[in-house]
Amino acid sequence: MSVEEFCIDRLPLPYSFYGKAVLQQRRYQEGQTLPQVRLSWPQFRFDLETIKAYAKICQWPFDGQTVPFFFPHSFFGPLHLQMLTDANFPLKILGGVHLRNHILQHRPLKIATPYAAKLYLLQWRRRPQGIEVDFKTDIREGEELVWESVTSFLFRRKCKELDPESPLSPILQNLSEPNAVGSFPVPPLTGKQFGWITKDINPIHMSRFAAKLFGFRRDICHGMWALARSVPYLPALDWQQPVRNDVSFKGPLFIGHDICVKQSPMAPGCFELYSAGNERPCVLARFQQGPSLERLL
């Protein structure tokens, strides 16, 4: 297995990576092994102004010091793109799908605190829908792991041989007889505004016309925006304790359509998000909290 290691001292601008994604002419060969891509950022701090803008559009309560729970995932989005568009990565990412996300925050992150981050390809597998790739992100303060995530992408293709499913895949199942606990609108400029704040400028979020080119009936909102925006409708969480979120993205949440949040008393901590007019859940998610949470895997 080839290894690609990079050490960075600043967050790269993602625009060139989108250009690479469009121009990629890659052919994965059956039986080929994906290269181990690793990125390290020895010291960084979160940017106050960016977090202010993020908190405002997500309507996340911000105390001026604590980094919102979901923000690091979006913050590191350009680094995921850098790894996926690396010259040795054999899968064409145009049309790739953000499949699942798993985050464990061991304790709150602070804006003024220096941290170190490592991102790397954790594992991959051939499944009936295509090839799933998992990237791991670790944020440390000194030697202490304070925030970690596993992000799974799906690249659709037919595979002659299949691998076992991810142990994280069956965590979330559709709720039984869920009840609506609230709803919120997705304003027309949400995709553009959240995209420019987080540098996630995937065309399906930025343009109705571009979204139609990819087979959607109109532009769709960022799933991570919808997750953060849903939190006020859920039972209050104690963010001083370890908090874990698991989420599976099942379908698009369209801009201009209200999002309904549903829960079931039979599944504490679990919730689903529905796009108006769709009877099936577009997002399945779960929150857990408490000192018993130790590692994602």
What does this structure look like?
There is one protein chain. The protein is 20% helix and 31% strand. The chain has eight helices and eleven strands. The protein has helices spanning 15-23, 48-58, 71-75, 77-84, 190-198, 203-206, 208-213, 223-230, and strands at residues 3-7, 36-44, 97-105, 115-127, 130-141, 144-156, 179-184, 243-249, 259-263, 270-275, 283-289. An eleven-stranded mixed beta sheet has the order 1-2-4-5-6-3-8-11-10-9-7, covered by helices on one side.
List keywords for this structure.
alpha+beta, 297 residues, single chain, eleven-stranded mixed beta sheet, 8 helices, Thiol Ester Dehydrase, Chain A
Q: Helical content, roughly?
A: 10-25%
CATH class: Alpha Beta
As residue ranges, the low-confidence spans are none
Structural class: alpha+beta
How large, in whole angstroms, is the Cα Rg?
19 Å
Task: Give the CATH architecture.
Answer: Roll
The end-to-end distance, rounded to whole angstroms, is 23 Å
Order of SSEs: EHEHHHEEEEEHHHHEEEE
